[in-house]
């Protein structure tokens, strides 16, 4: 009995004690952002991939967002521009993964909620983290206007080793500008601060000591050898092949990584051969060395593709000549038109040759209805009479039977008393 009780206690404890669900976490730089602002976050997971990160709406629906990522110590620094086309409200950054734990496949995830508000003016920055592999040189930040009025940006640095070329820079609607930062004897991590109205950033600048020195400004002026293969598709994806109905939307992420020691500028995405191909971010101003960018690709958003097989390609090419091509083959199958509803068969018209064409059907119907009502009243009267007759007959029978029984009993009693 004691053993059985102990077993029950152990089973209960096993059910309520939480099990460690893998090394996965996500944290945001802030819990409040603005439309068009660059959202910065830190993500930690055992097998990191930007394809495992999603932007969720308030109802848990996945939204299109193009994520950038770079290694950041034991974590990854992730950032994306919050789409100014979305509405202000509640959102969350969702990270999910599948792990093997104790011989079983388990799904683990982490969520970081945040709010988004409107503001008079907003600008985005790229990259939102800088990794320097030299003690002396320069780098640049791309500042792009994303929402509202002109932004006048104040620039500062947390270290004397980082010296922005300008302390103030403005970006008007539709504009993108480069902010250059010189650095000398840079050995400790620091930050570049940007502020305009409600929008503010602290851009981490990380010293990578193990890499070979590179002077970005001097080497970016000419095309370096080996740029042709500098951009690579994560996962070695070389082709996309799909076969769907003509009213189906094809959508998904494809990740690209800059494997060159220098940044890539103006990575332009284009598609040919297949109609209705859209990119979440068709022109990426800057991808730093070692940085990964996730492109959201959508095909046939309008669900009106013409049936047929289409062969083409998706191309990503930078100003430096870095280029990658993904073959694209899509076959749209025709959707069968819904069958026309079968009309109920009409009753054959009865034609009486002698009847006039202007026969008043409603009059005849009222006459029939009147006769039917009269017949119903007659039937009702007959039914009532029959019911009354049956009840009367039953009462009469009861009345006749009861006195005979009593009289018989009294006679038997009298006879017994006389004896």
Task: Summarize the structure in words.
With about 425 residues, this protein is of the alpha+beta class. The protein folds into three domains: about 25-120, Sandwich (Immunoglobulin-like), CATH 2.60.40.2300; about 120-220, Sandwich (Immunoglobulin-like); about 225-335, Immunoglobulins (Immunoglobulin-like), CATH 2.60.40. The protein contains three helices and 27 strands. The strands form five sheets. Strands 1, 3, 6, 7, 19, 21, 23 and 25 form an eight-stranded antiparallel β-sheet that branches. A five-stranded mixed β-sheet has the order 2-9-8-4-5, with no helix packed on it. Strands 11-18-17-13-15 form a five-stranded mixed β-sheet, with no helix packed on it. The longest helix has about 60 residues, at about 360-419. It is elongated, with a radius of gyration of 42 Å.
